[in-house]
Amino acid sequence: MPRFSIIVPSHGVAGRLSLALDSVLAQSFGDFELIPVSDAPDAPAAALAAGYARRDSRVAPVHSPPSAGLSGARNTGTRAASGTYLLFLDGDDLLAPGALAALDARLSETGDVDVLYAEHERIPWWDGEPANPVAPLLARAPKGAFLPAEAPHLTGVQLPVWGTAYRRAFVTEHRLAFPDGHFTDVGFGGLVTVHAERVAVLRSVVVRHLLRRQGNRLNLPGDHHPELLDRADEVLTRAAERGLSGDRSGPLFEQLFAAVLKTAAHPARLTGGRRRAFFRRAGRLYRRHRPAGFRGPGGSLGVQHRLLATGAYTAFRVLGGANRKASGAVHRVPRPQGLRTRLFYRRQLRRRIDPNLAVYCAYWGRGYACSPAAIHAKAAELAPHIRSVFLVEPDQAHAMPAGVDHAVIGSRRYWQVLARAKYLVNNANFAEGVVKREGSVHVQTQHGTPLKKMGVDQSTYPVVAAATGSFTRLLGRVDRWDYNLSSNTHSTQMWERAFPGSYEQLEYGYPRNDVFCTATAADVARVRRELGVPEGSTAVLYAPTHRDYHTGFEPGLDLEAFCEAAGEDVVVLLRAHYFYDRGGARNSGRIIDVTGHRSSEEVCLAADALVTDYSSIMFDYANLDRPIVVYADDWDVYRETRGVYFDLMAAPPGRVVRTPQELARVFRDGSCADSGAAALRAAFRSRFCQFDDGLAAERVVRRVLLGEPPESIAPVRPLAGRVPAPAASPLVRS
Question: What does the alpha-carbon distance between residue 418 and residue 336 come to, in Å, rounded to a whole number?
């Protein structure tokens, strides 16, 4: 029997789960079992936990459906546990170094106790000093094990569930379980307080709790707040049944109703008639459960107690209004240029949202491209009642396809459609001054799988952070997102870390990549003709990424020399990063400059192989199951200055070379396409091409624009069941 069973629910925190599990497995005290609880066997967190279980026999994953919530996950973990003590850890928190050794040492000192409360740190999600809020409470506790009556101020209402050790036999004997729904910690902690007979405290930090950027979900507006009254009722009813003395029930009662009054006084949590109903029901519970001889606190809180006891809702509301600043949502001030334009935009914002208007934009207005274009095309097919407008920069308006309605960025019509559109789709972000209206739906499609650090994860890399600008403004733009697309579980997890927000992740694949499963040989031949690829040649796409430590585009290779050394039939399709799109082709000899071509997907279709360094195009190109070579001449510099999410050298999509000579050789001798390269590519595709099955755009249109329920959306086809578009010239060398 292990000393500790550590239960880690993972719903909604897959992006940080590995950090939580690592913090447990790195403990110097090793007598424990680690029980990660994921949504289902095929959930992203389940795959992560399964990998840990294969490497460490102490990891024993279990599953609990999302519908069971946090309480269901913890109860499932408890049923699977075999340790002497239960320890709960949220999936985005960390177990402090030495925590288990400290808990074990303290329990050896105190002997078996029902509950061991410990300190924790609250870590600001972005910046600021950690806080240890329970240290003053625990400092007032007796030194050894004690009876609850000796420290009645210590209750599970004020102390968190995570970081507290519970004797498993005590939990089982009293059939204690986390109640369903919201405020489950209050319910469980309160019931533990009612039943506990021996308690102790540990005056050192056990858990480092990460504060979410969005704040505590329980504090948001909604219909869940009356459940707090349910939990209070359950705990106080059990206390009465157990015959708790007034000395013990008084502090428990006071702490429960401190939470109730905080909610009752908060206008953003309960609005209109719901607030009045909450107050009245709270008053009835207050009068029913008030312990004999209970004396309320002093000051303003004492006044609130008295008003609640008498049911004086109007006076309670007036008291709160006299001391509270207005706390409604603060509308962002639109910042279009020019007074007349600003006034025009504000007038448009006062008009009704058009339920049949969708606005699209790609790469900050660079044209009709990427996933927004793919969704736009599918919407024309499946949702023709929705009018679509594409936003473009003035110098790209002439390149818009025939029949695609568009508005020039900065024009009056641009601000008009942004103000009135129901749906707004972008692969980057809309302008700083765009207001997120209530009822509008913003879809972030992204434009690549993240290898390099993104969003707030860039903050520790000075060169990148300086170019990024204000992270506060970045997160303000993230707050406009309602949906965020992902093409693989790696992306899902990294987006959660890089762009913390309240949006919903849609693991539907990238719509721009649909064409890799739907294009035919005729489509490939057409694109090659349009790009000027000579018939019978082998087209190698060279697509280097942007270097934050370079001031301009540097090819990094002598491409003419590469062509000569690689083979007489080789031509290079040069596609520089879109930052360096100068609008004109730079063709020379066997080099075809395709940087200005609007569709990177078509360029990929035309290429028989890809050479890149660290560009995210490798993840998209892998869908075609064609040879990929990573030219990593400055990997160490790039990794240190830009930051990466995983070691590409350890899990590449094909051969890795570091010199021009090596690059030419793998094409000349065919090793870029041999069985070893194919095995690397297969593993890479399995990891990063999970959801790109040709149906991503349809899923987005049906779910977002047509409002179909999630369960009716077509599931992703397995990788083995997909047929990639054929290459024009399979690479074969002697």
Answer: 12
Tell me the pLDDT band of 340, cut-offs 50, 70 and 90.
Answer: confident
All residues at 6 or more sequence positions from 128 whose CB lies less than 8 Å from its CB, including other chains: none
Pair type for strands 62-63 and 32-38? parallel
pLDDT in tens, 181-203: 999 999 999 999 999 999 999 99
Reported confidence tier of residue 584, pLDDT bands at 50, 70, 90: very low
Cα distances (angstroms) measured from residue 596 to each of 38, 250, 510: 45, 73, 22
Whether residue 553 contacts residue 578, with contact meaning beta carbons closer than 8 Å, is answered with no
Q: Is 442 helix (H, G, I), strand (E, B) or coil?
A: strand
Q: Residue 265: its pLDDT value, please?
A: 85
Q: Is the pLDDT of residue 516 over 50?
A: yes
pLDDT at 557: 86
> Is 117 in contact with 21 (CB distance < 8 Å)?
no
627 and 654 in contact (C-beta within 8 Å)? yes
Question: Nearest to residue 416, comparing CAs of 352, 339, 361, 363?
Answer: 352
| All residues at 6 or more sequence positions from 93 whose CB lies less than 8 Å from its CB, including other chains | 20, 162, 207, 208, 209, 210
| pLDDT at residue number 82 | 97
Q: Which residues of 560-592 are buried (b: 16+ CB within 10 A; e: fewer)?
A: eebbebbbeebbbbbbbebeebeeebeeeebbb
At 76-108, the pLDDT tens digits run: 999 999 999 999 999 889 999 999 999 999 999
Tell me the longest C-alpha to C-alpha distance in the chain: 97
CB 383 within 8 A of CB 705: yes
Residue 319 belongs to what H/E stretch? helix 313-323
* Cα–Cα–Cα angle for 220, 505, 386, rounded to 5 degrees: 95
Q: What are 35's strand-pairing partners?
A: 7
Edge to edge, the sheet with strand 538-543 lists 591-593, 570-574, 538-543, 609-612, 628-631, 655-657
Question: Is-contact 307 316, C-beta < 8 A?
Answer: yes
pLDDT tens per residue, range 207-247: 999 887 776 777 778 888 999 999 999 999 999 999 998 88
Compute the distance between CA of residue 159 and CA of residue 137 in angstroms, rounded to an integer.
Answer: 9
Which residues share a beta bridge with 120?
Answer: 207
User: What backbone torsions phi and psi does residue 75 show, to the nearest 5 degrees?
Assistant: -65, -40
**The residue type at 195:** H
Beta bridge partners of 591: 572, 588
Tell me the sheet residues that pair with 426.
361, 444
Q: Which residues are paired to 484 by β-bridges?
A: 444, 505
- Give the residues across from 388 on adjacent strands: 358
Nearest alpha carbon to residue 666 among 581, 540, 574, 548? 540
Helix axes 246-264, 273-289, angle to 10 degrees: 170
CA distance 699 to 710: 9
Helix axis angle, 273-289 to 313-323, nearest 10° = 110
**Number of C-alpha atoms within 13 angstroms, CB side, residue 56?**
19
Say if residues 408 and 397 touch (Cβ distance below 8 Å). Answer: yes
Tokens of 427: 């692969």
Residues in CB range of 421: below 8 A, 6 or more apart? 353, 354, 357, 358, 359, 389, 440
d(CA 530, CA 520): 16
Report the side by side order of strands in the sheet with 4-9: 62-63, 32-38, 4-9, 85-88, 165-167, 115-123, 199-210, 94-95
